Amino acid sequence: MSIAFVFPGQGAQTITMGKALAEAYPAARAVFDEVDEALGERLSALIWEGEIETLTLTQNAQPALMATSMAAMRALEAEGITISTAAFVAGHSLGEYSALAAAGALSLADTARLLRTRGQAMQSAVPVGVGAMAALLGLDFETVKVVAAEAAAEGEVVQAANDNDPTQVVVSGHKAAVERAAEIAKARGAKRAVMLPVSAPFHCALMQPAADVMAEALAAVEIKTPAVPLIANVRAEAVTDPDTIRALLVEQVTGSVRWRESVQTMAAKGVTEFWEIGAGKALSGMIRKIDRTLASRQVGTDTDVKAALEA
How far apart are CA 137 and CA 151, in angstroms? Predict the structure, then answer.
């Protein structure tokens, strides 16, 4: 059996996530303390006692989800399950930063600060109301790329942003163009087209100002060779070179998250089980739709850690 550790992206956040881990494992509590110190504020108080609307703000959700994933990782390590247990790491969008932190390529403090910067930059790149995202259900990635090209015909941006699984592709761009894409998709046989409750159009060309900010921020931090290879979002292939990782993290801001292909890449390299490290179970659901022969396990609470240890 070969295992991959995968790390969730935005949308998985909940109030109290990671609290049980912090109470059960001093090493997990230390993660939240270090993130609080790195950001100069008590993000942990927001995560455990705040309002979901505030936690969901991109600049808060991104470092918060990473902190929760890293708390779960430290709890696993306290039980003797180290990163070397995994053949690969991967993450969905911001989860790629969590994956790199777990694999030792980025320090925890740098990762927290990078994600705060990333969240702020992505939020400010496009005025609220100008952009949108929509999930198109029942069309494959290649078909959605054609739909997006047709919807963008009036000079507005719309791109296939997230290739999540064979049943769900997300488009992102100018609001009017995304709405056109949704209508075109339904005419082409999509089962549903759902506008997403997001505050900015992530993973499309409109995010170029945020990509520029991240290029500067990433140039200022040390990236080490990860302990295990990263399956990168924008390439869906294994990378280990620090300079390549740095460039791909910048490209990721405007590029498509090729999650379906990433899972297929890991499966082709012998991975049979995926551990979703952190909050929620969205990735496990996607993995089941990508390949029902693949097993998945959520590791987001102290109970999950114990179950993983027994397994």
Answer: 17
